[in-house]
Specification:
Elements lengths: L6 E10 L2 E9 L6 E2 L4 H5 L19 E4 L4 E4 L2 E2 H7 L2 H10 L5 H12 L7 H7 L7 H15 L9 H27 L12 H10 L10 H14 L6 H11 L4 H12 L7 H12 L5 H9 L20 H16 L6 H15 L1 H5 L7 H11 L6 H21 L29
Antiparallel strand pairs: 1-2, 2-3, 4-5, 5-6
Bound molecules: carboxymethyl coenzyme *A.
């Protein structure tokens, strides 16, 4: 096999009718083996059919590994718990982009490069003025991410490794600035420029919450929580938005356009929009005594209501990020002196009820990261409409790392799935006057 890391273990035989075909089986460094069916169509005339790609590996990757049954998440081999406990977000960015943890000198250089790219082109201010004030910040964010390619022409040549790296640094550096601008615009406050003597998370909090009329002092506990939230969301292997970025990138589109595509995909309530949906759901439940009614609805197959912040395509165990998020949530509430948050009471009771319920046990539905991130972000002062934007800030590095890996993969080709066609067969055009 030519899969760069694995070794070919064996072949698998597919039998259709009375004919057999052998296909290579590849073994990764960890995780399930894959059967390479790239030649299935040319050899058998059949496609595979896998809506939602539940059994399909779309690429080979060295970036992130998830064991959903065991509740394990590794970035480049390092457990998420260790990175969240001991590392910082820019160190995680370096790790995701370059494959190794940085030395002290590499870290200082990387921090410097990101910090010194955090301003956006002044003309972008005017770009913002075109949006309605009541626009959802994710709509603004998606538009602005795409618009970066109109401002930074000198880093859109994807065949040039230097330009690829410049575009990567630019996006990691500018995305918090754009996110803070989207927030400020939505509340009618002046934009706050980045400040280079602050770390990434502190700078972001300042750009969101400072006003020119008074001094803003960053709370280190909240900055650490923000940084940790960024680490937890930085990458998650081939999820919907990352696959969107890879697919967009496979056509040769520039990196800013690809990241904008990922941002658009992230917005959906089944993906990055779930933290906003989870908090709205906790608000709708309102009090602990109403939990049974909502749990009953979530279990009813005739009701489309789902418990937001529960369940995951890959995790069939406690989401490891949710545990860290729960701890961070308590730290933030303690720091802010919030003793009795009714939403937290509902969340903790709902978690208990669901974890004891046969339906959730049988379907292996556990709280995911979004269950506690909403309460934390709300306590920090962010409105719900900003939650997915914060997810996008953190996930930008994951999208970029995956996009770079794809571009640098010699096996890369344009993504082009096939289909099971069940529409009309050939028929002749009928002039409108003769149609019934
Ligand atoms: N509440 C009630 N029932 C659920 C839920 C839920 N949150 N999630 C899944 N189920 C049921 C579902 O109805 C199905 O039942 P049945 O087998 O009887 O048809 C079964 O569990 C399997 O669910 P599925 O929808 O087939 O699983 P999926 O892998 O396609 O969906 C999911 C995964 C995350 C979209 C889904 O669990 C969900 O909609 N959860 C709520 C939204 C959410 O919290 N999303 C955030 C994901 S984590 C952040 C991120 O990675 O973006």
């Amino acid at each position: 096999m030519d899969a760069k890391t694995g070794t070919q273990k064996q072949t698998g035989t597919i039998t259709i009718g009375n004919k057999n075909w052998d296909f290579p089986i590849y073994k990764g460094t960890v995780g399930p083996d894959v059967i390479d069916i790239a030649k299935l169509y040319s050899e058998t005339g059949m496609f595979t059919y896998d809506p939602g790609f539940t059994s399909t590996a779309s690429c080979e990757s060295k970036i992130t590994y998830i064991d959903g049954d065991a509740g394990i998440l590794l970035y480049r081999g390092y457990p998420i718990e260790q990175l969240a406990e001991h590392g910082d977000f820019l160190e995680t960015c370096y790790l995701l982009l370059y494959g190794e943890l940085p030395t002290a000198a590499q870290k200082a250089d990387f921090d410097y490069r990101v910090t010194h790219h955090s301003m956006v082109h002044e003309q972008m201010m005017r770009f913002f003025q075109g949006f309605r004030r009541d626009a959802h910040p994710m709509a603004v964010m998606t538009g602005c991410m795409g618009a970066l390619s109109a401002f930074y022409h000198d880093s859109t040549d994807i065949t040039d490794p230097h330009q690829r790296m410049v575009a990567s640094i630019r996006m990691i550096a500018k995305v918090p600035t754009l996110a803070a601008m989207a927030y400020k615009y939505s509340i009618g406050q002046p934009f706050v420029y980045p400040k280079n003597d602050l770390d990434y998370a502190s700078n972001f909090l300042r750009m969101c919450f400072a006003v020119p009329a008074e001094e803003y002092k960053v709370n280190p506990v909240l900055a650490r929580a923000m940084d940790r939230i960024f680490i937890l969301h930085a990458d998650h292997e081939q999820n919907a938005s990352t696959s969107t970025v890879r697919l967009a990138g496979s056509s040769g589109a520039n990196p800013f356009a690809c990241i904008a595509a990922g941002c658009a995909c992230l917005w959906g309530p089944a993906h990055g929009g779930a933290n906003e949906a989870a908090l709205n759901m906790l608000r709708e439940i309102g009090t602990v005594d109403r939990i049974p009614e909502f749990v009953k609805r979530a279990k009813d197959p005739n009701d489309s209501f789902r418990l937001m912040g529960f369940g995951h395509r890959v995790y069939k165990n406690y989401d490891p990020r949710a545990k860290i998020m729960q701890k961070t949530c308590h730290e933030v509430l303690a720091e802010l002196g919030i003793k009795d948050d009714p939403l937290l009471d509902v969340a903790m009771e709902l978690e208990k009820v669901a974890l004891r319920d046969e339906y959730f046990i049988e379907k292996k539905l556990y709280p995911n990261i979004d269950f506690y991130s909403g309460i934390t972000l709300k306590a920090m002062g962010f409105p719900t409409t900003m939650f997915t934007v914060l997810f996008a800030v953190a996930r930008t590095v994951g999208w970029i790392a995956q996009w770079k890996e794809m571009i640098e993969d010699p096996k890369q080709k344009i993504g082009r799935p096939r289909q099971l066609y069940t529409g009309a067969t050939r028929r002749d055009y009928v002039p409108i006057s003769r149609r019934k």
